[in-house]
Model the fold of this input.
Amino acid sequence: MNCCIIGLQWGDEGKGKIVDVLAEQCDIVVRYSGGANAGHTVVIGDEKFALHLLPSGVLRENVICTVTNAVVVDPETIIKEIDGLSERGISLTGRLFISENAHVVLDYHKMEDRLREESLGKNKIGTTIRGIGPCYADKVGRSFAVRMGDFRDLGALEVKLKTIIEYKNKLFGALYDAEPINCDELFEKCKSYADRLVPFTIDTTELLHKSINEGKSLLFEGAQGSLLDIDHGTFPFVTSSNSSALGMSSGSGVPAKLVDKFYGVVKAYSTRVGGGPFPSEQDNEIGQYIRDKGHEYGTTTGRPRRCGWFDAVAVSYSATIGGIDSIAMLHLDTLSGIEELKVCRAYSIDGKETTFFPANVARLEQVQCVYETLKGWEEDITGVRNFNDLPSNAQEYVLLIEELTKVPIIIIGVGPGRSETIFR
Ligand code: GDP
Ligand code: IMO
Ligand code: MG
Done:
């Protein structure tokens, strides 16, 4: 069986935890999009792992891990992750494979990301400054792109880098009065990246299809969230890849029809980092309570996450465009202690109610949430392992969301650890 894990909100839903839990039953985990903007946390006992580029399946020692074509690979970050895991006794030798066709994030991408965000002032997107947008832009532009396979031929890469740096220096100098990038220094760095990463670099499409033919089971790990999808999210406050379920096949080279189950991951409330509309946001003591209790600070940037009520309109949209079969809802424990809970069941736009999410930002900015109100619960639920043992108000909360999203909720998170999970 092959399955795919997708965030249905604005990222940070808890995909890392769910991938780690489900990876126990699979042979290969496939990270297929995004870059080091992602931060996937896995908690095992007292140990915490924050992964940016390596698939979360990496913590299961007999699982093969692949980083496929549509991922933008920051060599510095991935080398740091490989070394960090090795220091903690987790070896990747012989089980990590990076696509030769994946694009490479270099220093000038991060520089451009930062310079552009600074120049936009209050109109900035609020990116993670990991060079994601500039790298994907170079990929689409083709002429100045560097792929992982380019590290195999350093002579050709040196010539290519000279052309790229000449262009970037003219551009950044003219637009931002920036210091020129030193091409020789960058090339030296590339030589060390090549040393470390060429041994992992292969044709991952071939590996995945051979593995499928051998009956191996694949787990596709989405990054970011569906509402950050470049084509279907809240543009321009999105990332630069297809981070909804729709990006899985183009990102990996495996057709969606070979995936048996698409699991959507949500939190029991909503969060968002960076700019952009967030209709159910609670910029008040409720939002602060959730932020404190749920430790809602970015895994990648440490920024406080904006928090709000669960938005069933937004999640239904993500589930619909993604063909989601079932939902894993995490952080139910974080809502313990809130007297009254709200769930957004519809939007009101110009006095009319709708349950279809308008991804167009100009329209989304005008919506008012229409809420259902439910009674909360006081109990600490982190020790609960059966749905029927949850306080009845917590059960009703889950059932209401299931009814509104029309997708069965089959996994519930009551804490960050592997075992703090309820299967229904
Ligand atoms: P991802 O980007 O989707 O993998 O999510 P992040 O790792 O960025 O953020 C999710 C955070 O919630 C992490 O710190 C997880 O350890 C934590 N977490 C996951 N599931 C649960 C849960 O059910 N309850 C609580 N309290 N924390 C959880
Ligand atoms: P995971 O995989 C939450 C957000 C940024 C910003 C926007 C664009 O951990 O869920 P970018 O650096 O991609 O150009 O930033 O997207 N963003 C995320 N938010 N979780 C993520 O990843 C994110 N990756 C990007 O905060 O608003
Ligand atoms: Mg995250």
